[in-house]
Amino acid sequence: MNDQQQRSRQRYFGFAGQPSGPVGRVVGFVAAVAAAILAFMFSLVLVALVVAGGAALGGWLWWKTREARKAMNGRRPPDGYVIEGEAVRETEAVVVRRLPE
Questions:
Q1: Is the dihedral of CA 58, 63, 65, 71 positive or negative?
Q2: What is the SS3 string spanning 30-78?
Q3: For the chain, percent of residues with pLDDT exceeding 70
Q4: Per-residue pLDDT, 68
Q5: Boundaries of domain holding 46
Q6: How does 8-37 read in b/e, with b if 16+ C-beta sit within 10 Å?
Q7: Is residue 101 in some structural domain?
Q8: Rounded distance, CA 99 to CA 97, Å?
Q9: Average pLDDT for 67-84
Q10: Is residue 68 part of a domain?
Q11: N or C: which end of the chain has fewer CB within 10 A?
């Protein structure tokens, strides 16, 4: 492939290869920095949307469970602290045999 064919292919297929000269390198660097800044900005927007969605979901869940929380608060015993469970008490039977008096 001669030089003329290579230039025509680059024109047809777009930019192929390293920028030629210092001006091309500066333009390439500026374009890369701009692309990195745009990517960072879009990632910040995405993070903000995820946080807002999580807050909305948490608020919705809190709102939907408020009646259950009120019912649980109303069923508390007056003394406050209750541990529910079962207990078994085992004692030895002491048989006292006395003679009749």
A1: positive
A2: HHHHHHHHHHHHHHHHHHHHHHHHHHHHHHHHHHHCHHHHHHHHHCCCC
A3: 74
A4: 87
A5: 42-73
A6: eeeeeeeeeeeeeeeeeeeeeeeeeeeeee
A7: no
A8: 7
A9: 74
A10: yes
A11: C
